[in-house]
Amino acid sequence: MSSKAITLGRHVLEDEKQHPEATGEFSALLIQIGYAAKLLSREISRAALIGKLGLVGEKNPTGDSQKVLDVYSNDVVVDAFAGTGLVAAIASEEMQKVKVVEGSEQARYILVTDPLDGSSNTDINGSIGTIFGIYRRKNHGPVDPISEVLRKGAEQVAAGYVMYSTSTVLVYACGHGVFGFTLDREVGEFLLSHDNIRCPGRGHYYSANLARSVDWHPNVRKYINYLNENDPHTSRPYSLRYTGALVADVHRSLIEGGLYFYPPDTGHKDGKLRLVYECAPLAYLVEAAGGRASTGMERIVDLQPQEIHQRVPFVVGSALDVEQYEAFLKHGRPE
Ligand code: AFP
After folding, report:
1. pLDDT by residue (tens digit) across 17-42?
2. Ligand 1: residue whose CA is nearest its atom 6
3. Which long-range contacts (CB under 8 A, 24 or more apart) does 87-91 make?
4. How deeply is 51 buried, as exposed, middle or buried, from its count of CB atoms within 10 A (0-12, 13-18, 19+)?
5. Residue 323 Cα, ligand 1 centroid: separation in angstroms?
6. What residues in the chain have per-residue pLDDT under 70?
7. Pocket of ligand 1 (CB under 6 A)
8. Can you list the alpha helix ranges (DSSP code H) found in 229-318?
9. Ligand 1, residues 40, 58, 272: which to mutate, most atoms within 8 A of Cβ?
10. Distance from the CA of 53 to the center of ligand 1, in angstroms?
11. CA–CA dist 42, 61 (Å, integer)
């Protein structure tokens, strides 16, 4: 490895120089997310050896069974910010209420997070992830957990994810580009591996849980039939890839093109995915890379959340593919 490799820390600090008004807190916040990701990467990779697999026996606030790693990951992210004065509050999939960080009334940022996305994959050595979004506070002083956290995704100042797979990759967007860093375990640093990521305009993969398609809107089923047809001019049939971890499927769509979608079904009348800490951060990031994200009808980052654990239908990925999904949903045909 060259000594010229760019670490996550160096990258955010160089970026900070472009903003003379910066206090350094935002850079410190991103570096702290990188630190939490390193801890999680280490513990996830040896979870089977240290008794961290399996269920806790509880349900999380949105009714999913909690895994040992879910609870551990939430603790790691919360602890990474305790006492730092960097974030005033944290909203997480694993916590019923917004956590106001003690002694951080003057902090300038709010963190939203799904600390462990795709937890059904933990016990089978599958890909999993961490999702995060960052908002700048409008005021200082005591936090109002509703007005300061329930914000439109478009107001985020940065968002990203960490994917724990064959390697650990941290991808973030902060207003002027999307950058990916791969963890070099021996050096203990995230190193820039994907500079200025752009999402291809169209792909030839789709990710969705087809087992639920009987319940989907008939126009979404028409879209699936369309994707499965043979037409080399439009790269059809698309190939199906579904990991059960949103982060992993979005990462593929971001790098290679294509789309992920989770429409409403009988068990999930509003869709399964959570707006505040799953869809909004990923939508912000994919749009920053030139992709597109919506409910099928409305742009995700324009939605005003009504509550922390709100669910929404979600489609995300290459701009032309997502547009085509939206056209099918509306008219039952490609455009
Ligand atoms: P968890 O984070 O609770 O494990 O949920 C995973 C997830 O929200 C998302 O990462 C997957 O794409 C989706 O659910 C999988 O849902 P199905 O099992 O219904 O396909």
Report:
1. 888 788 899 999 999 999 999 999 99
2. 118
3. 87/29, 87/111, 87/134, 88/137, 88/143, 88/148, 89/143, 89/145, 89/148, 89/149, 91/145, 91/149, 91/276, 91/277, 91/308
4. exposed
5. 23
6. 1-3
7. 64, 117-120, 209, 244-246, 272-273
8. 246-256, 280-288
9. 272
10. 17
11. 26
Q: What is the pLDDT of residue 51?
A: 80
Which among 303, 55, 298 is positioned nearest to 155, based on CA atoms? 303
Q: Where does residue 327 rank: exposed (0-12), middle (13-18), buried (19+ CB within 10 A)?
A: middle
Q: How far is the CA of 160 from the centre of ligand 1 (A)?
A: 18
- Output the residue whose Cα is nearest ligand 1's atom 12: 246
Predicted confidence at residue 1, as pLDDT, reads 59
Q: What is the spatial distance between Cα 226 and Cα 174, in angstroms, rounded to a whole number? A: 36
Q: State both tokens at 302.
A: 């324009």
Report which residue type is found at 110: I
pLDDT of the residue at 16: 86
Bond from prior residue into 237 cis (ω within 30 degrees of 0): yes
Ligand 1 centroid to Cα of residue 244, in Å, is 5
Ligand 1 site-directed mutation target among 273, 309, 310, most atoms within 8 Å of CB: 273
> pLDDT of 49-104, one tens digit each?
888 787 877 777 777 778 888 899 999 999 999 889 999 999 999 999 999 998 88
Whole-model pTM: value is 0.95
Give Cα separations from 193 to 16, 102, 178 (angstroms): 20, 36, 12
What pLDDT does residue 57 have?
73
Among protein residues, the one whose CA lies closest to atom 15 of ligand 1: 244
